[in-house]
Every structure is written in C-alpha cells, then in structure tokens.
Amino acid sequence: MATTAFDLSGKVALVTGANTGLGQGIALALAEAGADIAAAGIVPADETGEKVKALGRRFLNIDANLITIEPVERIVKETVDGLGGLDILVNNAGLIRRQDAVDFSEKDWDDVMNVNIKGAFFMAQAAGRHMIAQGRGKIINIASMLSFQGGIRVPSYTASKSGIAGITRLLANEWANKGLNINAIAPGYMATDNTAQIRADEAREKAILDRIPAARWGLPADLGGTAVFLAAAASDYVNGAVIPVDGGWLAR
Length: 252
Prior knowledge:
Largest sheet: 7 strands, parallel
Mean pLDDT: 96
Number of domains: 1
Distance between the termini: 31 Å
CATH topology: Rossmann fold
Low-confidence stretches: none
Shape: globular
CATH superfamily: NAD(P)-binding Rossmann-like Domain
Strand order of the largest sheet: 3-2-1-4-5-6-7
Helix content: 40-55%
C-alpha cells in the first residue's frame, strides 16, 4: 500500500491528556506522520509541544479540566480556531484509583467515571458534531486490557474501560455512514505513571511479565503505529474495532 495512505499532512489532531505517557507518545506519532497537534488537559503539555514543533508541526496547548464536561465545546472551538480544523480526536485523558472493591469510595468511583467514560463520550460528541458537518473524521478512544478482563482493585477503571469499548461500537453504528471512523486502542501493560505502583511491587511485576509473550512492558511509542493507522486513510473501512496493543497478553 502506498505510504500516502498513512500520511497525515494537513490534518489536525486533538489529543486529550497529551502532557506525558501514552498521550504524549500518540501525539508525537501523529505529528511524525504530518499532523498538527492540539493538546487538551489540566497539565500543560509543554514538553510535548516542544517535540511536536521540533518535527515542524504546529502545536496548540488548551487548558481544560476534563473531570467535568463543561470545557468540551470550548476545546473543539479553540482547536478549530487555532489550527484551522479538526480531523482527528484521540480520547486519551484518564484516571485510575486503586482500592479493594469492598472499601472503594464513591468519590473514587465518580472521579474516574467522570473523566474516563462521561468525559470521553461528550468529548466525542462535541468533536463528532464538527466532523459530521464536514463529512469526515477519525475518533480514537483509549480502551484497556480491562475492556476485556475484570482486573483487581480498580472497580471504576474497569467499568469505565468496559464502557469505552461499548461506546466505541455505538458511535461507529451511528456515525460510520456519515464519513466518520470510531475505533479504540486497548494498550496492554505500559510503563507509565499509572503503572508505577504495580511495577514497584516485585512479585506483581514478575507475574505480569511472565504472562506477556513479548516479555517486556510496553512503551508509549508502541502505540504510535496503531494510532497513525486509525487516524489515516488506511483505516477508512475499519469501524467499531477495539485493537489490543499488548505484547500478546490476551493471546496467552
């Protein structure tokens, strides 16, 4: 297939939670493929911005607390006004709280659900309205291994990521015939801030690594190829998919 099928030159991508970790890795991969980047989140993505600009792409930082849905319309407007359009949305912003289910608090439930599923849906809705009007667009949700499995000690995270898989399919059902592609990436066990607590537990880390056929933790850059594929013309007939990038974890 011609490399032009993966070329994002002239496209504008909005990535939530792009200041570090998986969001930063995805934003840089999209920029390397040619896209200009808007980053929305409560923490400024200054480091990401410097790296995007070093690639010769434009970068826009948007200050927004995604624990509420209030800023979603503003985020879309600032992206369109600042970069001239919106072609790709990556719903990456997320929270995780760890506690035994028997002791899990309502606050930890609500905080995680508000960002991970409520915020992701309404962010997709706001971007989707713009994309439907222009007749094209790509939405990439960030799911998880816990979109397929139950996990332990992360009740609201498991619920939210199971919900992301369902919402991805629902939006594909409603919007595919309007020129939009809505898919999700399900990262495996990645070396990010969210997994620092697990990686610090030698027994838990060994148990995880023993199950991963690739025998290593994933890195943010490992998501880049899949993100570019789902953002580009190469995936124009892919809709409602949840693609694991997990080193073989689910195959074990």
